[in-house]
Design a protein that fits this description.
91 residues, mainly alpha, 2 domains, single chain
């Protein structure tokens, strides 16, 4: 009964060392991919944000028109004020 724990302990130590070696090799191999994957992750996050907040795209596209002097800017300000009033009344 005393002989069986010894080989298991040795095997366990070998497996732990092997796993550590594999983790180190994987970290080294993935280092080259860190920057491209980070960029892709930011792109996915931006796409999700745009999907959840499509009004930001419309607002960004309409911003130059809103700041122009003329009729459209005034109408946009009035429409925005009316939208805020309706939103407050519903809440």
């Amino acid at each position: 009964m005393d002989r069986q724990p010894q080989p298991l302990a040795v095997r366990r130590a070998r497996l732990i060392a092997l796993a550590a070696s594999q983790r180190q090799r994987l970290a080294t191999d993935l280092e080259a991919w860190r920057r491209p994957l980070s960029l892709a992750d930011r792109g996915i996050a931006a796409a999700r944000f745009i999907g959840k907040h499509p009004a930001w795209i419309m607002g960004t596209a309409m911003a130059p028109l809103a700041f122009r002097t003329g009729g459209l800017g005034g109408w946009l300000r009035r429409g925005f004020a009316a939208w805020q009033i309706v939103r407050r009344l519903r809440a």
